[in-house]
């Protein structure tokens, strides 16, 4: 189903932030804001739900730590115990300080990589995917606010002009 | 403009008086003769009900100090003399740990301040007066540490055994180090370092105040230049200071990252105190322009530098533990054998607590949460210095008792008195700092 949306362009992140707050105060729903770089505090201003990415990162870190412990226990204690530096204790706990760097690295490795993969999946990003941003300028120096129109085109146009938009377009959008 | 409230002033003076009584009590209670020392240890051990275990360990464990004394003497008498020395050291060591700890806080803040100046940071100028207030303690704090070092050189105590000629005469390692580690050069270095730190602090403060009254930015630019120069001096002097004032209590042992390790400790303690003083002043309705983002940034530093400290602590520990070279590993063997609780407790306080409490972004903006974590961090870093000094000076005869608590209370009182008195001497918000607008609108 196609719907009409209004695109308001801004050329400064501070003006954009103020505009988002004004539009929210006027009780309009902002569909999306496209930015060339992350704008701190924009998610809160738009009223987006807090990201759950941090929780997944913590869980992935726990997985990494577990993998490291099991892996080093199998390699260094069970499968092929070695006497390194006069420490042939063959006990995981007594050799634990030597494994701390590996435990740390694998925790970071799992958390970082799996978090990035999760982020890509959640944002529906994959190779050769076609860009969703409606205007190429949002990858350069412009910010774009997208609001769906429900028979209130003129009202929105006035409001957005008032917030300091440098350009306003109306376009058709195919919702997926 | 902040005025030093009477309540806080009286509280700080009470702390100083109670602390001074504790310090004096510690010196009075220290044994004067070998017989008294033996009696103290005996009553202490029976009280704990583990006299046998303690005695058995006692005879097997000897550190360098005692070994050096044994030459030409009967073993038992030298052992008793050693015990007496350790018990006599205890009030001195307690005094030294607390004096160093509070000096270290203001020195850490001075380094943080110089970095903000040299980096021309835009977020922090609102906090400059708070930092300058804390660094004012460097003058009394540094002088007190210097006086304690001077008294050590004058053989008033046995904190630094390499200052004892009879020990050096029997010790080839110490003889080899005597070109560097001798009392005269030691005091000269200490004087140069303190003069450099205090000199920079006073000059930078003068320029900072002059900038408010001037009509150009020349004071600000000069402050930028001297801060960059000071950081070079600080990096070298802080490292050597940590070898001289802390590492040399165990003169056979050395670690090449010790300077960084002590730096991490003073840096995180200093930042913690900046956050705590700022939150205190905000609670009094001052520093209106300091917002939650400033506190958030300080808490991020507390979190990050706590992890940095742990990284250095573990790096130092793991390499020495792994290589297991006798002259290196004694440092950790004595600490794990005799100081198990403070040694591992300190890692929990300095690493686990800040990591778990400050991990969440929102918690870094909750002021009472930052204060709570700050108290744990400060106590943990006091324990860090305690663990560095005590095992080499009082051995297994440590205890957190009247001398230790008294010393901490005394220097805490002096610190509060001096810092808040200095805070009251100038407006809390710089007027003409070129970055003050950026700092006021700081939003993470």
From TrEMBL, chain A:
One Pfam family recorded for the sequence: ActD
Signal peptide extent: none
Domain of life: Bacteria
Keywords: Membrane, Transmembrane, Transmembrane helix
Residues spanning the membrane: 53-76, 96-121
Descriptive protein name: Quinol:cytochrome c oxidoreductase membrane protein
TrEMBL record, chain B:
Keyword Electron transport part of the UniProt annotation: no
Entry superkingdom: Bacteria
Transmembrane spans: 12-30, 93-115, 136-160, 180-200, 226-246, 258-281, 301-321, 341-359, 366-385, 405-424
Record's keyword terms, sorted: Membrane, Transmembrane, Transmembrane helix
Region (Disordered): 44-63
Protein name (record): Quinol:cytochrome c oxidoreductase quinone-binding subunit 2
Lineage: Bacteria, Pseudomonadati, Bacteroidota, Flavobacteriia, Flavobacteriales
